[in-house]
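Hi R.,

Here's the chain you asked about this morning:
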Amino acid sequence: MNPQFLIKLSIILYWITLSVSTSYWVIGFLGRRLRFYLLLSVVILLTTAIICRGLAIEYLPLTNKFESFSAFALAAFTVLLFNSKVESYVYRISLFCVGYCFFVAASFFPMKLSYAPPLMLTIWYILHVPISFFCYALWTSSSAAAMARYFSAGDKRQFEQIIDFGFQYGLIAFSISMIFGGLWGYVAWGSYFLWDAKLLWSVIIWFFYATCIHLDYWPEARKFKTPLALVGFMILLTTYVGTSFLIKSSHSF
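And here is the predicted structure, written out as tokens:
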């Protein structure tokens, strides 16, 4: 199929998805069934748009800022979709807001066809990057649950469970992603590790969430898990976005 047609189709789907996701602010919080199907349609449309871009370049479509921000938005929306039964307005609006802001921000970058450079043409890149996005989404979910724990009434235990789930499975996913990233680095740059801003912040965020998990072994420190979930989101933004816009890095997308 013609690559230019696929790219145009993906752009049309992007704007349709943006319109549907924007309507979530109006009608998506009215009922569980309604918001589930509305969010499901967002995930399906956005996934289809990303697939079209992948077919156009015949590779993983994570080659520029537009695609990167769109992919992270998809990860955040997907995590929210799986947690759609959580009856907390604060949790839903916090997690959705992050995904929506990245999705809107994607529109400020060029949407044109972009092919992967040679250093990305390896299976390790394909495995490394998508897992990283979903791990970021899980940690964002933890921060949204922390917000809900502070500002929602009723039982707080469900938010503590979401925080723990994001901490644990996000760290597992990130650990796997770092292994693949090291292998990608060896193929692309001849080294498993470089003194690069992105890699340094990746190590920082790994130790941060590893520490958060080990707080369970120190009863007096468990109360700090909720504020640390919010701190973790700031470290996440630095790792994901700051190293591309504020700090010079070989990983700038």
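One quick note: Residues 234 and 246 are 14 Å apart (CA to CA).

Cheers,
M.
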